[in-house]
Structure formats: structure tokens, C-alpha cells
Amino acid sequence: MASLKLPGMRAILAPIRRVRRGLTPALGAMPKLIAICYRLLNGEASAVEAAENNEIHDFGGELVLTFDDGEKSFISWVNDPVQYAIGTKDASHFVPDAELADYDVSDTSMWASLIGQDVSLSFIAANNQVLKVSSAADHVLLCSYERGGWWADEVTVCRQAPAPYGA
């Protein structure tokens, strides 16, 4: 009679512990990234210049990653699993009549190295507060961070995670 090997209790409980700590598994590999659009609220256009200069910047709107298979990922600040976090959806986080202006930032210094690359999206800090958009050669971090604390109703775009997390 062949013996059946069952996973140990540690392996069974690991996903439960991960969820309890607020870490969400990687969203996974995506097709080739072909465009990045910032959808900005009134008064946030300075974020485009900061992206051109590869500088840390933030905005209250959302960004849209477009892939070569036509799929889009809308990324913005959300209030789940904690009040201030980063979330992804396949449609806008905003109501249809929201006054958002679209800016193509695909060729900016912040984003250009990811265009045409296979990218993956993964949360790298507790409670979905830092989302890493990465290729084999580069990455950009999207954080719910503002003024020294993890409490922003904005998206901060950067290359290196700001304090207090060293993600």
C-alpha cells in the first residue's frame, strides 16, 4: 500500500498567517507593459514633471498600466485592508464623472525602462501599503505614504521605499 504524504501543519497554516499579518501574495507576472497613464485630479499636474525628472512624487488620482494583451490595471489608494493602502482594479477607482485629466507618462525617466518589458506586481509591505511594479532589470514602488506616516489618501511614486519601511 502506497503511503500518502500530507503537508505539515506549518505549510497548511502559512497562508493563513500571511493574510492575518496583512501581506497579500504577489499579483503575479503580467504581459508586456506598453503604456502608463496618470489620471490626475485638478492641481496635480506637477506629478508629470516629477516623473520626467525621476523624482519622488504623489497624487490623489490613479495610474493605469496598459499591457500588450489589452488588459489594464488601475492603481490608486484604497481603504482596504487598512484605511490607507494601495489597491488594483480592472476599472477606475473613481466615479465615471470624476474630473480626472489623463497624462501619458510612459516615456518619462521614472517609467521608460519598464515599457516593453514583462512586469510583475507584488505587495512588499504589510497591509498592501507598497506595491512593486518590476521587470527583470528595474522597478517602481507605489506607496500609501505621506509626511512620515502610512496614512495617505494619495499614491506616492518612488524607486526606494520611504521610511518607516525599508522594503
Describe the overall structure.
This protein is mainly beta and 167 residues long. The protein is 11% helix and 35% strand. The protein is built from two helices and ten strands. A hairpin with a 6-residue loop joins strand 4 (72-78) and strand 5 (85-89). The termini are far apart.
Query: What's the number of extended β-strand segments?
Result: 10
Mean pLDDT: 82
Q: What distance separates the N and C termini?
A: 49 Å
Topology pattern, helix = H, strand = E: HEHEEEEEEEEE
The parts where pLDDT drops under 50 for at least 5 residues are 3-25
- Our estimate of the beta-strand percent is 25-35%
Radius of gyration: 18 Å
Q: In DSSP terms, counting alpha (H) and pi (I) runs of 4 or more, how many helices?
A: 2
Characterize the main sheet.
10 strands, antiparallel
Given the C-alpha coordinates, what overall shape results?
Answer: globular
Structural class: mainly beta
Fraction of residues in H or I helices: 10-25%
